[in-house]
Amino acid sequence: MLSYFLRRLILVLPVAFGVSVICFLLVQIAPGDPLTAIMPVDATAEEQAAMRAAYGLDKPLPVQYGIWIANLAQGDMGRSIATGRPVAGEVFGAVQNSLLLAISAAVIAFPIGIFLGFLAGYFRDKPLDRVVTAISIAGVSVPNYWLGIVLVIIFSVSLGWLPSMGAGPGGSQDWAWDWLHMRHLILPAVTLAVVPIGIVARTVRALSGDILTMDFVQALYAKGMSRLDVLAHVARNAAATALSVMGLQLGYLLGGSILIETVFNWPGSGFLLSNAIFQRDLPLLQGTILVLALFFVAMNLIVDVVQAAIDPRIKRN
Amino acid sequence: MTEKLVDIRNLTVRFKGARTVYAINDLSLSLKQGETLALLGESGSGKSVTLKTLLRLLPPRRSEIEGEIRVNGTDVQALSGKALQSYRGGEVSMVFQDPGLALDPVYTVGAQIAEAVMRHKGLRKEEAISTAFDMLQRVHIPSPERRLRNYPHELSGGMRQRVMIALALACRPRLLLADEPTTALDATVQIQILLLLRDLQREFGMGVIFVTHDIGVAVEVSERIAVMYAGRIVEEGTTHEIINDPRHPYTRGLLAANLHDIARGERLNAIPGAPPALEEPPSGCSFAPRCPMAGPVCRAGVPDFVNLGPRRRVACLRVDPVPAE
């Protein structure tokens, strides 16, 4: 198992390298000069050149990449052009907040999705299945930023039960584990959970429905197993595929919540990313994309390893 | 013990759906303790449905079952809940046609056998595993210790069927149902599995109902043969009687269609026509459309059994009750 993990890890390295190169180049090929945003309009050519040299933008690209990677290795992602603060601190703070939101959404979505999916798979083509299918199609189809706004109108504006902005009282950007802060998590987490509920429910429905028609299920009944025993077998058969879908969903939740974080003013990576884009804050953009992309790569690695650990049919050597 | 192990009376099974399928029509069958019976017939003749009815494995909503089924005195139709669970696998167990599909792919072989043993014998895990080990030895699996920890896909087809047999016999059932257990296997492996089943039957003394479409297999394993056609038994007798003195035209056709004694280039003696679709209840002899001897009387009503001796019967109007010789 350990050797399998190490081999997967080695396979991940070229992917990580590719991700870093793309992150680096994406910003280079983006139109517009980042310096124009911070330089006064009447800056002389010399002043511009000096600034360019100060940020290392005058060196050849491979050298810039080398410096960038060397700095990255020391946890230095450069300084934000807009705020002048270190990118690493900004990104990690934001990613932490996003991770909190993503995991909360996953904690809501996965059990509900699994439960609904099992229900639909077990009662396939019965009315209950149709209800679940309708729910999951609605979950996947409804634009979640719109749903977020609707929830804000209902629970924040009309009922006044839950706050709509920020991660803490008064729209605070700092997180703490108390009710005052957790109240702020509820609406964005629920909104974000809707899509994965649909996707997980559909996946589990298809998996469990198919597994239930397999011969070994009848063989299990034939050897005297109860319904519950059989469901345990079905769950274990479905687990590998279901977990991989859920792992990737977690990745999407982390990186794909830009709209939700904007709607709820949640101080996460998506929020940071949209700010960085609008301000042409290249180091910040680079750092955020890199961290999110690497997180996705890591998520894939974890999914692969976990899948191999629970499904004996996947060759480990 | 003279009591019948299996006693099926007037069993009728219909599948409802877009079209009703008359799968089993008024079938009666009995099996003594420790006896081996082959249910012989072509695909769709109702052999497997009969086995599944015995284990109550048919989907309850879609199937309509009439008649009486007693196994060792228990009314199988009346079982439910815990009693049904301990009947399945405890009293009666089943070896399926394709062991590659009938074993759970993500559980080890040992765990799957142990699971059944724990359920029926109330043993702890370690004891159940050692029972599983013992069973793997009895079905002659080499290095059973290691095989316990293997998953089904890591074993060959023949090995998997041995595991399936070990699983079926681990709880010492009184009745073993074998649903074409060698059909999915290579010819050489088939013979090994048949011999193994025969040896284990002698060792454990359970009754066996062996479903097959292969007359050669039936001869190899069984003492008695019941020939099925279109959801009914058309002829029953000892293996010797069926092979040497077949009375029903269908049985004769089956024997004649055998590949033995056919010279190269010679035409096979296939039975002309195809079996009926079973979409309506039989109004006459189901074999009449394909039967060389059939007359109007055969189509007029379902033929009753003619008893030719104790436990020797044939459902044909054209049969001569006196033996030919």
Q: Mind sketching the topology for me?
A:
The complex is a heterodimer of chains A (317) and B (325).
Chain A: H1 2-29, H2 34-38, H3 45-54, H4 61-73, H5 87-122, H6 127-141, H7 144-158, H8 179-212, H9 215-222, H10 227-255, H11 258-263, H12 269-278, H13 282-310
Helix pairs in contact in A: 1-13, 5-6, 5-8, 5-10, 5-12, 5-13, 6-8, 7-8, 8-10, 10-13, 12-13
Chain B: E1 4-15, E2 21-32, E3 36-40, H1 47-54, E4 63-71, E5 74-75, H2 81-87, E6 92-95, H3 99-102, H4 109-121, H5 125-138, H6 144-147, H7 157-169, E7 175-179, H8 187-204, E8 207-212, H9 215-221, E9 224-229, E10 232-238, H10 239-244, H11 249-256, H12 296-300, E11 306-309, E12 312-314
Parallel strand pairs in B: 3-8, 3-9, 6-7, 7-8
Antiparallel strand pairs in B: 1-2, 1-4, 4-5, 9-10, 10-12, 11-12
Helix pairs in contact in B: 4-5, 4-7, 5-7, 7-8
Low-confidence stretches of chain A: none
- Helix count of chain A equals 13
Helix content of chain A: over 70%
Sum up the overall morphology of chain A in one term.
globular
Strand content of chain A: under 5%
Determine Rg of chain B (CA atoms, Å).
21 Å
Distance between the termini of chain A: 9 Å
Rough shape of chain B? globular
CATH homologous superfamily placement of the domain at 96-310 in chain A: MetI-like
Structural class of chain A: mainly alpha
Count of helix runs of chain B: 12
State the end-to-end distance of chain B: 35 Å
Biggest β-sheet description of chain B: 8 strands, mixed
Range of strand content of chain B? 15-25%
Model description:
Chain A is mainly alpha-helical. Chain A has a domain at 96-310: Orthogonal Bundle (MetI-like fold), CATH 1.10.3720.10. Chain A has 13 helices and no strands. Chain A has helices spanning 2-29, 34-38, 45-54, 61-73, 87-122, 127-141, 144-158, 179-212, 215-222, 227-255, 258-263, 269-278, 282-310. In chain A, α5 packs antiparallel against α6. The model of chain A has no long low-confidence stretch (mean pLDDT 84). Chain B has two domains: 4-91 and 173-314, 3-Layer(aba) Sandwich (Rossmann fold), CATH 3.40.50; 100-171, no CATH class. Chain B has helices at 47-54, 81-87, 99-102, 109-121, 125-138, 144-147, 157-169, 187-204, 215-221, 239-244, 249-256, 296-300; strands at 4-15, 21-32, 36-40, 63-71, 74-75, 92-95, 175-179, 207-212, 224-229, 232-238, 306-309, 312-314. An eight-stranded mixed β-sheet of chain B has the order 6-7-8-3-9-10-12-11, sandwiched between helices. A four-stranded antiparallel β-sheet of chain B has the order 2-1-4-5, covered by helices on one side. In chain B, β11 (306-309) and β12 (312-314) form a beta hairpin. The mean pLDDT of chain B is 87. Chain A binds chain B through residues 214-216, 218-226, 229, 233, 236-237, 240, 310-313, and chain B through 55, 57, 85-90, 93-94, 96, 98, 101-108, 115-116, 119-120, 151, 153-154, 167-168.
